[in-house]
Amino acid sequence: METESEPYVRLATLRQLHKVVADLNTARSLADTLQTVADGIVAGLGYELACVNLVRADGDLVVAAFAGSAAAEALITGRVGSRPSWDRRLSMGEAWGELRFIPHTEGWVLIEDDVPQWHTEGPDPRFEDEWHPQDRLYAPMYASGGGRELLGVISVDRPRNGRRPGPWGQEALQMYASQAAIAISNARLRANMQRALVRLEREQQALRASEESFRQAFEYAPSGMAIAEMGGDQHGRLLRTNDALCRLLGRPASAMRRYSFADLVHQDDIGTLLRTSAEGGRAELRLGRRDGTYVWVSLRNSVVADTADGPRFLLTHIEDIEDRKRHELQLAHRASHDALTGLPNSAELRTRLSAKLCERPPASHEAELEHLGGAYDQDPGSPFGDGFDFGPTGTAYDHHVHTIAPAEEVDDGTKGLAVLFCDLDGFKSINDRFGHQTGDAVLVEVARRLTTGVREGDTVARLGGDEFVVLADGLGSADAADLAARLRNAIVLPIRVGGRGVRVGASFGISWASCGMTVDEVLQSADQRMYVEKRSRSKVHRRAG
Fold it and tell me: Which phi and psi (to 5°) does residue 487 adopt?
């Protein structure tokens, strides 16, 4: 079972991974891209050393970039390892997906081969999964397409936590290597395209040869390419598309010439497209396929100018990033949701609850506005405008509506954000009697019943163990009590697991979130009320017995 801190670590790692992957696309040259790949390993993936070995035209691999140690960089940068030696390394050790890990117990046989390498200093490991100074971990980079052409190998050393990477770390390194391969391929392609464009501008006497070079780079590029008109009534109309783009969108070239990118882009991405088209540059957006579906692409524009007439057309490079986007969503979902039940986890619950609350209670908010010169709802001429709230440092929150708690003694019609803390009764005995597999099945079914019993837009989260929390906005006191009763009645029905019926009870504590409270205060209040109810129900049960 994962610890409470692991979702935060995963989310932080995911954010850092997204940043270093984004940095891969900002490098201006192939050399910058290679160095950015090495720096990203050290900055974002938790390793102290990283080396990028690039395949040369003759098949051997040269150390093209290094990060983490100036001494090691000076020692091996520019040195070459033969392809047979590299092939041997990539067939040894343990296969972690696309990665290759060679433990020190096997790596000693490689000390004398011609692959440039270094050895870190340090004591022998004390634990089974601790990193040994002579362990080796390689991440091959393959070109896109079905041929699996090897572009290079990233080698890493000395994880900062001193441990061999687990499944999460392995997956992050493999994803990074895949994106690095795309960035290196794109950098090479951009370099070729830029050279072709320079020849078009500076070598008028070789115009026909330059046009052929451009045509070849355009037509046979592994990713989508397009030329669009710029300016005039036909601004943005596609003049020419390559086979890769036609295949990606499932549209023939003849049909593509009837469209502009504005006709193909998802309506939610129109603004992004217009900004990118007007200024040149890069964007990630969705383009429509012929079958009505959309595919995520990375779109990079270059404004190709005529020296006499100014900007004439846009040269656009389109890279399919659907797998990466889907993977990002999966990683984000794993970091914010419980692996067993699929419900939002504690971190996501806190995020959603925090988004509803500001740090200043309604009363002090109104007093502050009075001090500024008028009541909040009576002064549309306030210097801050109508509909603003203020944090403790004077920060304005646009259109914030204070969350308030209804009176609990009398239901006066006030609606608020109800927080229902649910703890299962008798769950431990099920685990003890029938085992954790049955217990897990019970938790999954309870999660389903809770989700089914709330409204669309309400949140059901699992804190851990047999504790759940429901956030239900817009309820009065009677509404919240009715919701708790309905959910309790749904939970107590028998649950069929492995041919047997088991039962659990449920105790609910109802609290109310209001601005001025912290997330911890809200959850603690609901927890305490649940505990009071559980103790009260226990007393009633003992009397009845």
Answer: -70, -40
244 C-beta neighbours (distance < 10 Å), count: 19
Q: Distance of CA 385 to CAs 274, 357, 395, Å?
A: 30, 21, 14
- Residue matched to tokens 């046009």: 211
Is residue 140 within 8 Å of 150, Cβ to Cβ? yes
Measuring CA to CA, how many Å separate 95 from each of 89, 98, 155, 165, 433? 11, 7, 14, 13, 40
For the segment 117-175, what is each residue's pLDDT rounded down to a tens digit?
A: 877 777 777 888 899 988 899 999 998 876 789 999 999 998 988 899 988 889 889 98
Cα–Cα–Cα angle for 219, 223, 224, nearest 5°? 70
Q: How many CA atoms lie within 13 A of 493 on its CB side?
A: 11
Residues making up the chain, counted from first to last: 545
Taking only Cα atoms into account, the Rg of the chain, rounded to an integer number of angstroms, comes to 30
**Phi, psi for 339 (deg, rounded to 5):** -65, -30
Distances (CA, A) of 4 to 222, 406, 440: 44, 32, 18
Q: Which helix (H) or strand (E) holds 297?
A: strand 294-306
Token pair, residue 530, equals 């649940």
Q: In the predicted model, what is the mean pLDDT of residues 59-77?
A: 90
Residue 323 CB: number of other CB atoms within 10 A?
Answer: 11
- Collect all residues with Cβ–Cβ distance below 8 Å to 423 and sequence separation of at least 6: 466, 467, 506, 507, 530, 534
Could you tell me whether strands 467-475 and 459-464 are parallel, antiparallel, or unpaired per DSSP bridges?
antiparallel
CA angle 419, 423, 428 (to 5 degrees): 165
Q: Whole-model pTM? A: 0.45
Q: Which of 539, 540, 521, 285 is CA-nearest to residue 419?
A: 521
Q: Which residue is it, tokens 């669009």?
A: 228
Q: What is the phi-psi region of residue 318: left when phi exceeds 0, alpha when psi lies from -120 to 50, beta otherwise? A: beta
Tokens of 17: 């991974």
